[in-house]
Each structure stands twice: as C-alpha cells, then as structure tokens.
Design brief:
heterodimer; A: about 290 residues; mainly alpha; B: about 290 residues; about 0% strand; globular
Chain lengths: ~290, ~290
C-alpha cells in the first residue's frame, strides 16, 4: 500500500516537472550544447558544413586584440554602471526611508523608468543627446559648461559614458526599491541606541546601515553585474559598437561575429569563454560574500 | 544564486525611521534625482506632441502649448506599426500564459516532493538565468534554422518564456512552501484527485505569486529585443522593440516626432499594467527565489 503511494508521488511529480524540463531543454540546454559544439568547428552561415577545426577559434580569439578590447569595454561599462547604480540607488533608498512628505507618491513614480522598455529609453536619450537640436547640448552651452555642441554618441571620448547614463537611468529605480526593502528590515532600536550615544549621520550610516545591509547590497550587486555583463539593447541601438569600436562590448562583438560576419563557430567560442569567465566570477563572489558572513 | 535569493528575503518588516539630518538636503537630492528620472519621460511626451519642423528649432519648446497629434494619428493609421503591436501582444501574452502554467507545475513539484536530484534541478534552474543571452541566441538560431522554425511566433514565445521561467519557478516554489500541507491532506480524505487539489485548493491561495510572475514575464517579454531581432526577419512577424529600432533609429532618420509617438504608444500598456499591479511586482521581486 505504502509503496504504491510512493510510486504515485513519483509519477505525479514527474508529470509536473515535465513541461518545465522540456522548455528548459529546448530553449537553454540544447542551444547551449549546440553553441559549445559549434565553437570547435568552422561553421559559417555562408558555408553550412561544419568541420572540426582543432581549437582554431579559441587560439585565434586568445590572440586577437579585438577580443581583449571588447572585454575591457565591457568591464569598464559594468564596473562604472554598477557603482553608480548602487551609490545613487542607496542614496535614494535612504531619502525615501525618511519621513518626508509625499513619500508614497515618490516611491511609485520613481519606478516608472524601470517599466519603460529598454528600446524606448534608448530612443529618448538619442534625441536628448542629438548633436544639433538635442536638449542636452542646448542646456550645457547656455550654462557655459561647454563651448561647442558635442556629438555625444559619435565621440570616442563620450560614447561609453553616454550609454552608462542611460543604463543608470533605467536601473537605479529597481536598485533603490530593493535596497529600500532591505533598509526597512533594519530594527529602529539600533538607530535609537546610536542616537543616544551621540553618533552623527555619517557614523550611523558607516556603523549600522552599511553592515546590516551588506547581504542585500551583495545580492543586488550580483544581479546588476550579471545583467549588465550581457547588456545588448543599449549598445546596439545607441552606438552599435561605434565610434571606431569605442563601445564594442562582448555582447556586440559576439553578435557582429555571428550575424554580420556569419562566423557562427568563432562567435560561439566567444560565448563559451564568456560563460567560463562568468562562472569563475560568480564562484569567487559567492565565496567572498559567504566568508564575510561568518 | 541560492545565497542571493536567501539574502533578498530579509526584506519586508515594519517601518523604521533613520535619524533625521538635514531635511532640506534630502529634498534637494530628491529633486535632482527626480529630474534625472522624470525629465526623459516628460520629454518623450512633449516631443511627440510637436511637429518635426517645430523640433528642429532652437530654443527647444519646453511645453506642448499647442499640442499637435498628427504623429499619433500617423502611428495609429500605420498598418506596419499596428502589426508590430499585435505581434508583441501575442508573444507577450503567450509567454505569460505558458510561464504561469509551467511554473505552477514545477514550483509545486519542487515544493512538495523531495526526489533524487531535486536540489540539482533547482541549481540548474537558477544558473540558467546567468547564461549570456547572445550565446544562447547563436545556438537557438542554428537549432531553429535546422527545424525551419525561424520567423514564427512560437519561437519567440518559447525564448521569452525561458528568459523568465527560472525566476518564476523559484517564486512559485516559495509561495507553495508557505501554504500548509494540511489543506491537501484534507482534500485527499475528501477523495479529490491530486490535480484537482492543486487547481481547486492550492492555486486560488497563490494568486499574489501568480500575479507577480505574470507581470514579470509580461514585462520581460515586452522588453525583448535580441530574440525578436535575430530569430525573426519577416516584417509581418516582427515585434515592437526591433520594429521601433529598425524603423526609426536608422543612421540619418530625423523623424523624432514619429519615433517618440511610437515609443509612447509602445509604453502605455506597460505603464497601465505597472501602475495597477506595482504592489504585487515589488512583493514578488523581493520574495522570489527564496529557498525554504
């Protein structure tokens, strides 16, 4: 009797898991395996037969300066974006955690940029950045901050920073809301004790808020790092990797190799190396966070 | 990823007030950030309500004094744009429905049954979120090309579902963990079948979780750009994000009034969904993926 019940459980659970497993196999596991296999071949969309090419994709990649360049661009983008996300998001969360007027109203409207599609935020910033009639150049020249109009997205000096601003615009709200939820979990008795001891605002932040919030900050940071590492939409629409490769991130480099140069094998190899880097990073990151927890 | 999820948990608890320093400073800071976050939103609307001739003049027109709706009329009369719109609604709704069912099933199984490999499966779901989409797209492209499935909505629905599925499964599991098993035992004594118990007893109790994954999936699917760009090249099957990009963001295109009107029209359904259901979304985001 008991055995049949146990068997029934197994059957029921398997039936329930089947759709998820099928979907994952079809959309993640099998394309991933396919990519790894392709990375060892000379597969091109122009010549559909696939031949084993003795790691040529990998040796070529590790010797190509384009690959290291795109890795550097990506790292610069990720580091600066995530730091800005966290600093602005944190400040916003702290302000919104105070008893200010219209707090509920502010909390809901700051989420709007996050609900806007990425492509729409890219489009509006393209118009704001526009060289001759964009509102940014108009304001900056009239304030005397710059002398001549700057073509923000076509300048090797400013293109990456301009993309970062759009990313921060869209990501800060989510970061702020997650950190705010964390702040609300800190017991107010800690703050009262600090106040009785005469601690000032900065000391309270350093000694109470930051340590108590560290786990939340860690998870938010990891999510933002992983997401930004694969940012594609903003790079593709705002600059498409230009000017002169100044904003060619890993995602753009992979995309161009695969769908403009049709070298699927080589593009897969970039993807595989990227995957390995990401795995190594997340393992180190989790280990650091765990060690500090103890 | 489990640790992350666990950390995200330590969230909603009663309100606390940090010590007040300078209230004025707070307002100034808040004002500056609000300007940064809200001006672009305002600027889409203002731009879309001007003609292109008005836009190519300095100083810029800061307010829509004589709003001009011709760009909106043009957009709503354009069959290409309406096709993009219809396709996006189709793909996003399809992905949402599929994701709800699949994650209810899988989340329930992971919550109620401990079987061999269930931890491994959980780990697999969680790390699936980290795989670079561009890498997946290369594999997906050649896989679907082989099956002649490129240029169909099925492919986009499947791909969009997979983007939000891992998170949704974990979120449903968390919700089911919070529902007492006694309910199922009672239903079993009454002679209800397992599927009936799941749908008649458990699902109605998990509405907030289902709402959260529905909104999450819908937003992610609506926002998709890369899948739509690569897996679909037929203009009749194209979705909004790649459609907007290919129509309006050409190197020398200067139709900013039309572009912003289309962008505003593409955003409105999301803002409506978001405004009404924000509460579920925030709750879900903070609870999602929590283990035990």
């Amino acid at each position: 009797m008991r055995l049949t019940r146990h068997h029934k459980n197994i059957i029921f659970a398997s039936v329930l898991m089947l759709p998820a497993f099928a979907l994952l196999a079809l959309t993640i596991i099998s394309p991933l395996i396919k990519s790894v296999l392709m990375s060892f071949t000379d597969y091109s969309l122009l010549a559909p037969e696939q031949n084993w090419n003795n790691f040529a994709n990998y040796t070529e990649l590790l010797r190509s300066s384009d690959f290291y360049h795109s890795l550097t661009v990506t790292l610069r983008y990720v580091v600066i974006t995530v730091i800005l996300d966290l600093v602005i998001g944190m400040s916003l969360a702290i302000v919104l955690n105070r008893n200010i007027r219209f707090r509920g109203f502010f909390r809901s409207i700051i989420m709007i940029p996050w609900a806007i599609p990425t492509i729409v935020s890219a489009l509006i910033f393209m118009w704001i950045y526009q060289g001759d009639y964009g509102v940014l150049n108009y304001v900056l020249t009239n304030l005397g901050i710059i002398d001549d109009n700057i073509n923000w997205l076509r300048s090797t000096d400013y293109a990456l920073s301009s993309i970062i601003v759009v990313a921060v615009f869209r990501q800060t709200p989510l970061v702020a809301v997650m950190l705010l939820a964390g702040l609300q979990g800190i017991s107010s008795s800690l703050y009262e004790a600090a106040r009785i001891d005469g601690a000032n605002g900065w000391q309270v932040f350093r000694k109470i808020t930051l340590p108590m919030l560290k786990p939340v900050i860690g998870s938010v940071a990891l999510i933002m790092i992983v997401n930004n590492f694969q940012m594609f939409t903003l790079f593709f629409t705002l600059t498409n990797g230009g000017p002169a490769g100044a904003t060619t991130s890993l995602a753009i480099h992979t995309y161009i190799t695969a769908f403009s140069q049709y070298e699927m094998g080589k593009a897969s190899a970039i993807g595989v190396i990227w995957l390995l880097l990401l795995f190594a990073f997340s393992m180190v990151f989790t280990r650091i966070m765990n060690r500090d927890d103890r | 990823m489990n640790q992350i999820a666990k950390r995200l948990l330590k969230f909603t608890r009663p309100q606390s007030s940090t010590p007040r320093t300078s209230e004025l400073g707070s307002y100034i800071f808040l004002g500056a950030i609000l300007l940064f976050l809200m001006f672009p939103v305002y600027w889409i609307i203002v731009t879309s309500l001007h003609t292109n001739a008005d836009l190519l003049q300095l100083p810029p027109k800061w307010f829509p004094v004589n709003p001009d709706f011709s760009s909106y009329k043009e957009i709503l009369g354009s069959s290409v744009f309406l096709t993009f719109y219809k396709n996006t609604i189709l793909v996003a709704s399809g992905a949402t429905v599929l994701c709800i069912f699949v994650s209810i099933f899988a989340g329930y199984a992971l919550s109620r049954f401990k079987f061999k490999g269930s931890n491994l499966l959980t780990l697999l779901f969680l790390s699936a979120q980290m795989f670079p989409t561009v890498t997946l797209v290369i594999g997906l492209y050649s896989q679907y090309q082989a099956f002649n499935l490129l240029n169909t909505h099925y492919v986009l629905i499947l791909a969009s579902t997979s983007a939000s599925l891992p998170f949704s499964i974990m979120l449903m599991r968390t919700f089911f963990n919070g529902i007492s098993r006694e309910l199922e035992e009672a239903a079993e004594i009454d002679g209800a079948s397992r599927f009936k118990t799941l749908f008649a007893v458990i699902v109605p109790l998990s509405k907030p979780g289902i709402m959260a994954i529905a909104i999450y999936t819908f937003l992610i699917a609506w926002d998709d750009f890369l899948f739509g760009l690569t897996l679909v090249s037929d203009i009749n099957k194209r979705t909004l994000s790649p459609g907007l990009s290919l129509t309006y963001l050409g190197e020398y295109s200067a139709n900013w009034s039309g572009a912003t009107a289309a962008a505003a029209a593409a955003t409105i359904p999301l803002l409506i969904v978001f405004m009404f259901l924000q509460r579920y979304m925030v709750e879900g985001l903070t609870a999602g993926g929590v283990k035990e």
